[in-house]
């Protein structure tokens, strides 16, 4: 056989793709919700895509304006700061206010919907810390 053992290993199933539950793991209803083909293909409302991408579009507009006014260095510096702030995270079972991101975007002086109705004690994310860390690390 001229292909050798390396090609045989390449054609086999990698171990990372096989989870603890096996190849036939079901849909996790508690974490992902109900599945529907219609919801995957079309948005439920015409404004849903606009609302979903609002912050991204806002950032693009701000970066373009900043580039036109101050040059290319200003949006690049701001993007590097955004990436640095996104890398710093709390543990998945703890609530994070993302105050540094709000300051960079200029939202620290605004009162929004999530400031009033986003009480961390009523969060659905709260759960057992060990299970949530194992899920985040891919051990579960």
TrEMBL record:
Pfam families xref list: UMP1
Family statement drawn from the similarity comment of this UniProt entry: Belongs to the POMP/UMP1 family.
Keywords linked to the UniProt accession: Chaperone
Name of the molecule in the record: POMP protein
Matches recorded under PANTHER family: PROTEASOME MATURATION PROTEIN, PROTEASOME MATURATION PROTEIN UMP1
GO terms of biological process kind: proteasome assembly
Chaperone recorded as keyword: yes
Gene Ontology CC entries for this record: cytoplasm; nucleus
InterPro entries: Ump1
